[in-house]
Automatic annotation (TrEMBL):
A Pfam family the protein falls into: Hydrolase_3
InterPro entries tied to this protein: Cof, HAD-like_sf, HAD-SF_hydro_IIB, HAD_sf
Domain of life of the source: Bacteria
Protein name: Cof subfamily protein (Haloacid dehalogenase superfamily)
Gene3D superfamilies the record matches: 3.30.1240.10, HAD superfamily/HAD-like
Endpoints of the signal sequence: none
Protein's organism: Microbacterium murale
Length: 269
């Protein structure tokens, strides 16, 4: 296949277990860029989390954040698009969940991913790795303030319940008007209706005039499934859940074995 764009998830995929870009991976990315191939990080992270590794990976162009909810240019901050979850939908969802499961905590990502509005108590159970933000900077507000404005990503968390169990409870509510997924982080992530990594990538490819068939995508988690199904060629990482592997055309070695780099090297010949 002709290769014009590489779309890659970060955590568990491009980055190793220490959240670093290996030298081999950086060389593979640079080799692809040298022949004019677009390299696009497609991540659940917000810009603050991308900036942590952008220099290491050589990212200085378009990135898709919030599971495809918005496209931002890492060099100049331009926004190509942003799809927010309406505040009314967020309030309905939060009320239904609270009626089903006590003890939930919520947070809202806003303003091009730069603003993080967390409910009182959220920071106390958060770690730096969760949102690539120091919990001491999160503050805490009453829940009505978290629910007061649209969210690029709405975060649902429970102090004890594992995210897959919380995700199942959410799905059993039978509510509509949003997209929910898991990225491997310790919470459920909710975006605007219809928003996935695939929809965001399709919009960016249209802007860049890149055909779907000229895209290779890499991922390892549930939030990557739609992107893997959409891309012209897709690669799941070793150890990914079966649903993720089933969505891909091939399975690479793990993120700690330079799986992404190995596939890029092969495709570049």
């Amino acid at each position: 296949m002709p290769l014009r764009l590489i779309a890659t998830d970060l955590d568990g995929t491009l980055l190793d277990s220490a959240s670093a870009v290996s030298p081999r991976t950086r060389r593979a990315l640079d080799a692809a860029r040298a022949v004019g191939i677009h390299i696009v990080p497609v991540t659940a992270r917000q810009p603050i989390g991308l900036r942590m590794i952008a220099a290491e990976a050589g990212f200085d162009d378009w990135a898709l954040c919030g599971n495809g909810a918005y496209a931002t240019h890492l060099a100049d901050g331009r926004m190509l698009f942003a799809e927010a979850l309406p505040a009314e939908t967020v309030r309905t969802l939060a009320a239904a969940l609270q009626a089903t499961l006590p003890g939930l905590l919520f947070a809202s990502v806003r303003d091009g991913g730069e603003t993080f509005v967390a409910q009182h108590g959220y920071a106390q159970i958060a770690k730096l790795a969760d949102h690539k933000r120091d919990p001491r900077t999160m503050g805490g507000v009453p829940l009505d303030q978290v629910l007061a404005e649209p969210s690029l990503k709405f975060v649902i968390r429970h102090p004890e319940l594992a995210p897959p169990a919380l995700f199942d409870i959410l799905r059993r509510l039978g509510l509509t008007g949003f997209e929910a997924t898991l990225s491997g982080a310790p919470f459920v992530e909710v975006m605007a209706e219809g928003v996935t990594k695939a929809t965001g990538l399709a919009r960016l490819c249209e802007h860049l005039e890149v055909k779907r068939t000229d895209v290779v995508a890499f991922g390892d988690a549930l939030n990557d499934v739609e992107m893997l199904r959409w891309a012209g060629h897709s690669v799941a990482m070793a150890g990914a859940e079966q649903a993720v592997q089933d969505a891909a055309d091939e399975v690479a070695t793990s993120n700690d074995e330079d799986g992404v780099a190995r596939v890029i090297e092969r495709m570049l010949g």
